[in-house]
């Protein structure tokens, strides 16, 4: 079983977003970067499958060297090796091209990603990569089991879920509860230092989108407090003032 | 030339979010001087197709092959790509949904199209083609230039308020070439709550957290939701504990919603929870702790015990 897990290095979920350079850049000062939470689910399941079925887990990031700590953490969690395509990941199509190029060279049985990045929330890289490789892509995946060359998958749909079966290889966008997030242990952290992290240059430079500037949402007005003893007033206000019911 | 809208059927009816997408698409067509075509996949009756016209489509392509009744993202992407080529559509519009998101990603790959997800306004076409989209799950917005010839806009709920008119659309049967490889993924079972208001589609949402103490107490949440015709949602620990199904979990790692009204009961308001609900138009928080962080992000608040407050609210709604 050869598994590729694509991971993003993204601001921690508790980050308060601020802007710099005349609102053309996100302010990275003081921001803690983490593995995308959905990517973390994908990685955890990949490591479990490796433990169960044997094989290798390779981690792939398209990014600059500031992503290396996140990649090392993935190695500490149990990936065997890592590849970083050295480029600024400014566009999903560009990122997908890089992932597809690596996948073509290495023929993986499974290419696992997160359902979406938690920074740009595109939810598209798995679909584009699937298309580029001529492989099925499925997202968001809640459960994944492998039996021989068949994957059994539970996918979330609106108001429920569906069970799917497909032959490998596959591209999957993962979410909970596919696995529990794994925390690296001391042995993992030590061994991660010597596991291979190969840095390669990007192929192609097609970008289809370009961010010109950013904006922060306006603050909500003050919260109008209603005493619990007059709870019914809330319903009146929702009808007459907020006009939402 | 036209703007093509992917309009989704759910249990035979056009989804509300798709009507919004059709209306949005008609406005984009007006801005770019093109026409509005909607594509509908799977069996659907004439009344539903006519609805597309009333919300702004001038033409409806209907691919009624029964093989398309089940939402299959890969097959759908092939069909929509074929329709886009036939119509010479450079702009494709859809409402975000579990199916549409997967379809759009494949379509972006097929057409080499720039895909902007979570678009929240009409595009600016004064020079180039620029959209405003929500990023960081609602914590910021990015103005994004779509530089490719083909563009896909996935709009977030409540991006535009659709207006229904008496207009009619011409309906054309669309017979795409269906490809076996698009059906390589077999659906073996589907479990879906029927008759419920789908959470991502809902205008009103009643949500509850760990403050409810246990799944046996959800009756008071459901009663209020029922009285309001609202959908129910929950915080992550509640779905992690299996008190509620996972598809009700909202937040950073769950479903992202933007309803008109979000009522949070016994939820503390962690930043990861807020990320999924902060684009709701009006937020109401009911929490017994006056220091609960959620009050800082709310429009209306009640400091009180949900077990007392919720039944009173339900009664007040019933008496409206
Ligand atoms: C300085 C800067 C400028 C940017 N400018 C733009 C811009 O102009 N337009 C734009 O659309 N985006 C821009 N981005 C965001 C960038 O495109 C995304 O971070 C990423 O390339 C894909 O975005 P997505 O949200 O569509 O990913 P999604 O499709 O949501 O990601 C799904 C999954 O794909 C995998 N994946 C995504 N990105 C990577 C990656 N880099 N390496 C490995 N795996 C990955 C992960 O498993 C992820 O969970 C910019 C980012 C930076 C840092
Ligand atoms: C990477 C990451 C991703 C995450 N993603 C999500 C996500 O998508 N969604 C999400 O929800 N969380 C998410 N979380 C978890 C989040 O940080 C919080 O732990 C979670 O939202 C708390 O849920 P809660 O508000 O239901 O519970 P609690 O924080 O325990 O809050 C319960 C609240 O109920 C109140 N209460 C208790 N009894 C009563 C009563 N009788 N009447 C009224 N009020 C009462 C209490 O005062 C308290 O404020 C994520 C965390 C991480 C680290």
TrEMBL record, chain A:
GO terms for cellular component: cytosol. It comes from the Bacteria. Signal peptide: none annotated. It comes from Larkinella punicea. Belongs to the ETF beta-subunit/FixA family. Coiled coil: none annotated. One of its GO terms (molecular function) is electron transfer activity. This is Electron transfer flavoprotein subunit beta.
UniProtKB/TrEMBL annotation, chain B:
Keywords: Electron transport, FAD, Flavoprotein, Transport. GO terms for molecular function: electron transfer activity; flavin adenine dinucleotide binding. It comes from the Bacteria. Its cofactor is FAD. Binds 1 FAD per dimer. Residues 3-187 form the Electron transfer flavoprotein alpha/beta-subunit N-terminal domain. SMART domains: ETF. FAD binds at residues 210, 266-273, 287. GO terms for biological process: fatty acid beta-oxidation using acyl-CoA dehydrogenase. The keyword ATP-binding does not apply. Belongs to the ETF alpha-subunit/FixB family. This is Electron transfer flavoprotein subunit alpha/FixB family protein. It comes from Larkinella punicea.
């Amino acid at each position: 079983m050869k598994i590729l897990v694509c991971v993003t290095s993204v601001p921690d979920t508790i980050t308060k977003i601020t802007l710099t350079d005349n609102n053309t850049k996100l302010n990275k000062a003081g921001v803690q970067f983490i593995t995308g939470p959905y990517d973390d689910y994908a990685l955890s399941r990949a490591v479990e499958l490796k433990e169960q079925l044997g094989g290798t887990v390779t981690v792939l990031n398209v990014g600059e060297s500031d992503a290396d700590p996140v990649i090392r953490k993935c190695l500490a969690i149990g990936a065997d090796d890592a590849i970083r395509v050295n480029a600024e990941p400014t566009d999903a199509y560009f990122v997908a091209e890089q992932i597809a190029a690596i996948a073509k060279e290495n023929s993986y049985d499974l290419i696992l990603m997160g359902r979406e990045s938690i920074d740009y929330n595109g939810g598209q890289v798995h679909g584009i990569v699937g298309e580029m490789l001529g492989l099925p892509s499925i997202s968001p995946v809640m459960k994944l089991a492998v039996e021989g060359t068949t994957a059994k998958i539970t996918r979330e749909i609106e108001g429920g879920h569906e069970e799917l079966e497909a032959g490998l290889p596959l591209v999957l966008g993962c979410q909970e509860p596919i696995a529990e997030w794994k925390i690296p242990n001391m042995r993992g952290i030590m061994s991660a230092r010597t596991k291979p992290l190969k840095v390669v240059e990007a192929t192609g430079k097609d970008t289809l989108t370009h961010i010109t500037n950013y904006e922060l949402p306006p603050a909500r007005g003050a919260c109008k407090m209603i005493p619990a003893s007059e709870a019914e007033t809330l319903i009146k206000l929702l009808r007459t003032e907020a006009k939402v019911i | 030339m036209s703007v093509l809208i992917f309009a989704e059927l759910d249990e035979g009816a056009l989804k509300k979010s798709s009507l919004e997408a059709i209306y949005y698409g008609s406005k984009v067509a007006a801005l770019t001087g093109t026409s509005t075509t909607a594509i509908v996949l799977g069996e659907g009756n004439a009344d539903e197709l006519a609805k597309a016209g009333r919300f702004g489509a001038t033409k409806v392509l209907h691919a009624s092959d029964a093989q398309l009744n089940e939402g299959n993202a890969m097959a759908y992407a092939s069909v929509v790509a074929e329709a886009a080529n036939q119509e010479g559509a450079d702009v494709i519009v859809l409402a975000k949904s579990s199916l549409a998101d997967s379809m759009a990603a494949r379509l972006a790959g097929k057409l080499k199209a720039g895909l902007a997800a979570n678009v929240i306004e009409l595009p600016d076409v004064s020079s180039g083609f620029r959209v405003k989209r929500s990023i960081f799950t609602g914590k910021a917005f990015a103005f994004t230039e779509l530089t490719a010839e083909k563009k896909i806009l996935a709009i977030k709920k409540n991006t535009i308020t659709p207006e229904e008119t008496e207009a009619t659309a011409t309906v054309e049967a669309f017979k795409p070439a269906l490809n076996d490889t698009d059906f390589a993924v077999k659906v073996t079972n589907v479990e879906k709550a029927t008759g419920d208001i789908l959470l991502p589609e809902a205008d009103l949402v009643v949500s509850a957290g760990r403050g409810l103490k246990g799944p046996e107490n959800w009756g008071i949440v459901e009663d209020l939701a029922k009285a309001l015709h609202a959908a129910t949602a929950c915080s992550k620990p509640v779905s992690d504990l299996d008190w509620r199904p996972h598809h009700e979990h909202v937040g950073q790692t769950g479903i992202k919603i933007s309803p008109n009204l979000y009522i949070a009961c016994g939820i503390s308001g962690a930043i990861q929870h807020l990320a999924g609900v902060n684009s709701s138009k009006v937020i109401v928080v009911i929490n017994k702790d006056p220091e609960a962080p959620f009050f800082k992000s709310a429009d209306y608040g009640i400091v009180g015990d949900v077990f007392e407050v919720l039944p009173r609210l339900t009664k007040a709604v019933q008496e409206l």
